[in-house]
């Protein structure tokens, strides 16, 4: 089955289209949303196309989410972008839609929806959206290009991550050629709020790096709240430990209100998504998320990460 063609036919057939993404969005989640909505609205000006989910002030420069009445969902085609599993979909009204299509680049460990297009080799969902537009000769204007460029830059870590391919760079060049202000977008993605900067300093003070290069930090709920991050959150902290030369893998544990821990796992080589799946999570081989019910489970994960890192044989 040519899944992209089937998706395009469904888009042409439906009058109302809702575009969702995951909770706690990053630039790729919002960028792919805004980019796809802009592309489709230009191609089909009479359709009702909405981007939905919680508005995140820190990403408002990418685009504003829209208020939509409940009833419109009942007649809608639902497109869920950049979301690996059902619990992470932002705005649960997606379940009311007539048909649900998943478009994503994360490993498809938890399939959902009536139709799914997953490309694990893509750097980002924004790259996939650009490919989709090119496939069906849909115009990408500067608004769409800026959003999609931001998504690619965000998910490749400014082109530092291993999922950056020659095709990624070709797509990026195409988007830049529309005349977008790439420098300003890069600056937006690189900047942080003062509270996040102060928490970053705390992170470096508290990090433990083992002899084999496994690093971890445990952030208590009280500590996180004391920095008064507001809507900025802690997402921008995640790459920071990877800047340390001796670090090969790292985990950031963030205590939640119920005293469980949200765990962000990253790696420069050893595959950590198997470890994430063992602890109520999953994701990419080098970038995953998980949960720890308490400190005991957190310490278990730290030991497993240490062993995984020690066992890794680096290839050149």
TrEMBL record:
Residues 17-152 form the DDH domain. SUPFAM superfamilies: DHH phosphoesterases (SSF64182). Residues 235-309 form the DHHA1 domain. InterPro entries: DDH_dom, DHH_sf, DHHA1_dom, Oligoribo/pAp-PDE_c-di-AMP_PDE. This is Phosphoesterase. It comes from Furfurilactobacillus curtus.
């Amino acid at each position: 089955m040519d899944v992209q063609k089937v998706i395009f036919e469904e888009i042409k057939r439906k009058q109302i289209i809702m575009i969702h993404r995951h909770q706690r969005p990053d630039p790729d989640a919002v960028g792919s949303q805004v980019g796809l909505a802009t592309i489709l609205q230009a191609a089909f000006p009479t359709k009702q196309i909405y981007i939905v989910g919680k508005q995140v002030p820190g990403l408002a420069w990418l685009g504003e989410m829209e208020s939509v009445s409940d009833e419109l969902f009942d007649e809608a085609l639902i497109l869920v972008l950049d979301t690996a599993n059902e619990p992470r979909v932002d705005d649960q009204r997606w379940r009311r839609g007539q048909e649900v299509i998943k478009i994503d680049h994360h490993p498809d460990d938890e399939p959902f929806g009536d139709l799914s297009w997953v490309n694990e080799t893509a750097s980002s969902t924004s790259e996939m959206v650009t490919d989709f537009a090119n496939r069906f000769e849909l115009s990408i204007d500067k608004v769409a290009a800026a959003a999609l460029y931001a998504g690619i830059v965000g998910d490749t870590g400014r082109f530092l991550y291993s999922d950056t391919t020659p095709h990624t760079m070709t797509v990026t060049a195409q988007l830049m050629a529309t005349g977008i202000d790439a420098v300003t977008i890069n600056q937006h993605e690189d900047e942080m709020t003062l509270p996040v900067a102060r928490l970053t300093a705390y992170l470096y003070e508290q990090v433990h790096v083992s002899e084999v290069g496994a690093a971890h930090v445990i952030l208590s709920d009280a500590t996180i709240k004391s920095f008064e991050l507001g809507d900025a959150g802690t997402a921008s902290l995640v790459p920071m430990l990877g800047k340390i030369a001796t670090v090969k893998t790292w985990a950031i544990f963030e205590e939640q209100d119920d005293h469980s821990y949200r765990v962000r796992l990253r790696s420069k080589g050893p595959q950590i998504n198997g470890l994430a799946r063992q602890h109520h999570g999953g994701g990419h081989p080098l970038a995953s998320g998980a949960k720890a019910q308490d400190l005991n489970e957190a310490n278990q994960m730290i030991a497993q990460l240490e062993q995984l890192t020690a066992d890794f044989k680096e290839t050149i």
